[in-house]
Write a structure and sequence with these properties.
Length: 323
């Protein structure tokens, strides 16, 4: 989202067009289930994730959740991605992420913790009966989706990682391996590896979620296999993919986009239709998939519609200043 990348956004993506989608379309669980059964086999980027995870997802998956919006079709969610480790184009990750090897995988726990060291993915995921969470997902570039994730609350991983009382922030780091992630060979764009962070109270909020799957299947590589963060009330860039390290910190971590373009991206990055990006409005969003003739432009909601669950975290803070 540095200038070099974001200057390429077609103006059609950032110009408000009043094509309104009715947010109150009710999805019946049965309809959602039928949609999932009819999923096409994933395009490109095959994910050779460990069989235990495949088995756990099959065991844990049930579509019981009801939401009042249409799910984004699998194809749109897996072929229009931001994952700069595989290129700057929206279609690059689906074409190129096959070089990522999501198994075996561990997450290093570091910083202010009583239990520093490597946690194998199996130890992290296996104790959980995986849950489905259907969340709205709003990219800072003003497109949005509705995704059924599979995973478990971030709070339970944090509990297991035993942060000390000094830990006020949680920092997340993506894999750094230019052989697996060829976009990391491009050094003029991002200071690799990609880093994101949350304040501890944000991290343990029940909405903060670690995803290992989506649409009842294992996460495709381009969507952040084998494990990623999903923070639905914040712009999508906070939802860091392919995490290999969690560091508990006493002070606010330096995060990729806040470092890259501090006048455009802050640490908090709460979805806020009242605070425009310096180069485009955040008042509306383009719900994917759209077409030239049906852009599906809808109003953006404060905290992406999750105000009730999270507004208390920011009491007394000027959210126009702390963006
Ligand atoms: N994580 C890493 N490691 N690298 C990235 O480039 N892009 C972010 C976020 N997480 C990104 C990342 C941005 S800008 C968005 S909008 C979402 O991932 C996109 O997630 P999706 O491709 O699953 O829709």
């Amino acid at each position: 989202m540095s200038n070099s990348i974001f200057n390429n956004i077609p103006s059609s993506e950032i110009t408000p067009e009043e094509v309104f989608l009715n947010r109150r379309q009710i999805i019946k669980a049965a309809a959602a289930g039928a949609g999932l059964a009819a999923l096409p086999s994933i395009a490109s980027a095959k994910n050779p994730t460990a069989p235990w995870l495949e088995a756990q997802i099959k065991k844990g998956f049930e579509t019981t959740m009801k939401v009042d919006e249409d799910l984004t079709p699998w194809k749109a969610a897996t072929t229009y991605n931001n994952f700069y480790e595989f290129g700057f184009g929206k279609e690059d990750p689906a074409k190129k992420a096959h070089s990522l090897k999501p198994s075996p995988w561990s997450i290093e726990i570091a910083g202010e913790t009583e239990k520093p060291g490597l946690m194998p993915l199996e130890d992290i995921v296996s104790p959980h009966q995986l849950e489905e969470r259907i969340y709205r997902f709003r990219c800072v570039e003003a497109w949005s989706m509705v995704i059924p994730w599979l995973g478990f609350p971030l709070a339970s991983l944090i509990e297991k990682a035993k942060p000390t009382s000094k830990a006020k922030y949680v920092e997340f780091t993506t894999l750094y391996d230019p052989e697996q992630m060829p976009g990391q060979k491009v050094t003029y764009s991002i200071d690799w590896p990609y880093v994101e962070g949350l304040r501890m109270d944000e991290a343990i909020n029940p909405l903060s979620f670690m995803a290992v799957g989506m649409y009842g299947k294992i996460l495709p590589n381009q969507n952040g296999a084998p494990i990623r963060l999903v923070v639905p009330w914040k712009y999508g860039f906070k939802s860091i993919k392919s995490i290999v390290k969690i560091t508990f910190r006493e002070t606010m971590p330096d995060t990729t986009w806040a470092l890259q373009a501090p006048n455009e991206y802050g640490f908090y990055a709460n979805v806020n239709p009242e605070v425009d990006h310096p180069r485009w409005s955040q008042a509306t969003e383009r719900r994917l998939p759209g077409s030239l003739f049906n852009v599906r432009r809808i109003p953006t909601l404060k905290f992406n519609g999750y105000e009730e669950q999270v507004a208390h975290l920011y009491k007394g803070m000027d959210l126009a200043k702390f963006y």
